[in-house]
């Protein structure tokens, strides 16, 4: 059985082969699905899958052993059915971590089993708990399975967070730092302490066919957070979490400005999203390194506080630009679209109040919605208004027909309820090829994508 798993299910040489620079091609790029030539089971390292025995050392020893195969085509660590309790451990390059159907990796709820690490340089404040699954400067990593499960057992962390008794930031389930060629697929994620999947400073990341869920009362638990990363695809997945389901970020205030690594070339598609206290898709508010060239399409967002959110504030610097969001179905959403220039705390009191963020060239089209509270709320910054906000073919059934607008400009075409005058004020910024981005080629012609 294990040999079959190696040949049929393991992936190696995970290479995203880029075509054009247009981010809409990222999910169409393909992986080279060669088999791993070596495989071991976690059972070979003394692991016990009873949900009680702590297997941290077994996972660490297994990964250490598999490092020796990095220059021999890589290897797979096979996790069979069972409940495998563990603290945090690090992955290695040219590795497949495979969770069989019925296998659950359980995060230990014992705070003493979690090391602390320094904050990320683009965030620059304090320490934080190491994540459950970690990787730093890795190449060619696959985390997959036959719908195996990661359970963060986050309830105890949520209690500590809400009571203010945590000394450090909560851990994530998966965090990969400065790594390249990453595939995460065919898995379920439950009850993360904080973030489920956090690629930061990464390139060529493909996340597909994952189910991410937490309970409604999970405080500020996020689904996937691409952070100062490029060439990212997230597709064919369902995410139901307490806060934002997918949140694009790129650093915090002066630390993100100085680190200067944007999140760019991102494609999100075919997603079912639910966020009772957050947003289906969000940009920021930590976006000081910049966020650009993002294509979002084919979304269903239901029972959420906000559908699509753009968040920033004075002192962030950076930019959010060249964003296209299309084919979105909204149901039972408090506010369909929010763009807020006054959201988010600061890393410390050393931020530059004159570092003004720029939000521009955002196209949203083909939205439908029922059970919507407010159609949209756009509040830019006086010294740095949001510009070229372009709406097309958007039809929302709202309980309030008002749009709230200040310090914003753009244009709308075929939008109901009728938007505010500020979003009808600047047609030249939204027209290309004779229409309001009627076809992709026109949009690319304007944005030079």
TrEMBL record:
Residues 1-19 form the signal peptide. Coiled coil: none annotated. One of its GO terms (molecular function) is polygalacturonase activity. InterPro entries: GH28_Enzymes, Glyco_hydro_28, PbH1, Pectin_lyas_fold, Pectin_lyase_fold/virulence. It holds the Pfam family Glyco_hydro_28. One of its GO terms (biological process) is carbohydrate metabolic process. Keywords: Glycosidase, Hydrolase, Signal. The keyword Cytoplasm does not apply. PANTHER family: PECTIN LYASE-LIKE SUPERFAMILY PROTEIN, PECTIN LYASE-RELATED. Belongs to the glycosyl hydrolase 28 family. This is Pectate lyase superfamily protein domain-containing protein. It comes from Brassica campestris (Field mustard).
């Amino acid at each position: 059985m294990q040999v079959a798993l190696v040949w049929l299910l393991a992936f190696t040489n995970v290479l995203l082969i880029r075509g054009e620079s247009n981010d809409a091609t990222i999910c169409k790029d393909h992986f080279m699905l060669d088999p791993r030539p070596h495989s071991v089971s976690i059972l070979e390292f003394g692991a016990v899958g009873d949900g009680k025995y702590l297997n941290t050392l077994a996972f660490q020893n297994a990964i250490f052993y598999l490092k020796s195969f990095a220059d021999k085509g890589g290897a797979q660590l096979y996790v069979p059915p069972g409940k495998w309790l563990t603290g945090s451990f690090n992955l290695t390059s040219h590795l497949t971590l495979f969770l069989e159907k019925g296998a659950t990796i359980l995060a230990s709820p014992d705070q003493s089993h979690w090391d602390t690490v320094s904050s990320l340089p683009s965030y620059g404040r304090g320490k934080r708990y190491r994540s459950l699954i970690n990787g730093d400067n890795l190449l060619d990593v696959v985390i997959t399975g036959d719908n195996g499960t990661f359970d963060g057992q986050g309830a105890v962390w949520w209690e500590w967070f809400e009571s203010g008794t945590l000394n450090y930031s909560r851990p994530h389930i998966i965090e990969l730092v400065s790594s390249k060629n990453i595939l995460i697929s065919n898995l379920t994620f439950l009850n993360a302490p904080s973030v489920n999947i956090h690629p930061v400073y990464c390139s060529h990341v493909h996340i597909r066919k994952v189910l991410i869920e937490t309970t409604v009362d999970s405080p500020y638990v996020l689904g996937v957070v691409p952070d100062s990363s490029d060439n990212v695809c997230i597709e064919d997945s369902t995410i139901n979490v307490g806060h934002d389901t997918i949140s694009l970020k790129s650093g915090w205030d002066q630390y993100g400005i100085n680190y200067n690594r944007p999140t760019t070339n991102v494609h999100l598609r075919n997603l079912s999203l639910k966020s009772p206290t957050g947003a289906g898709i969000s940009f920021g508010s930590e976006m000081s390194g910049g966020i650009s060239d993002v294509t979002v399409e084919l979304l269903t967002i239901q029972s959420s506080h906000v559908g699509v959110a753009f968040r920033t504030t004075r002192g962030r610097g950076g930019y959010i630009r060249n964003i296209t969001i299309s084919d979105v179905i909204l149901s039972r959403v408090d506010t369909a679209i929010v763009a807020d220039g006054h959201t988010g705390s600061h890393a410390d009191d050393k931020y530059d109040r004159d570092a003004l963020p720029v939000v521009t060239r955002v196209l949203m089209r083909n939205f439908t919605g029922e059970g919507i509270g407010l159609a949209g709320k756009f509040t830019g910054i006086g010294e740095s208004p949001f510009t070229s906000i372009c709406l097309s073919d958007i039809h929302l059934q709202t309980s309030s027909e008002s749009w709230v607008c200040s310090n914003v400009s753009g244009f709308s075409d075929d939008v109901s309820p009728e938007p505010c005058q500020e979003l009808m004020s600047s047609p030249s910024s939204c027209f290309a090829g004779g229409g309001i981005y009627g076809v992709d080629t026109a949009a690319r012609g304007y944005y030079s994508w």
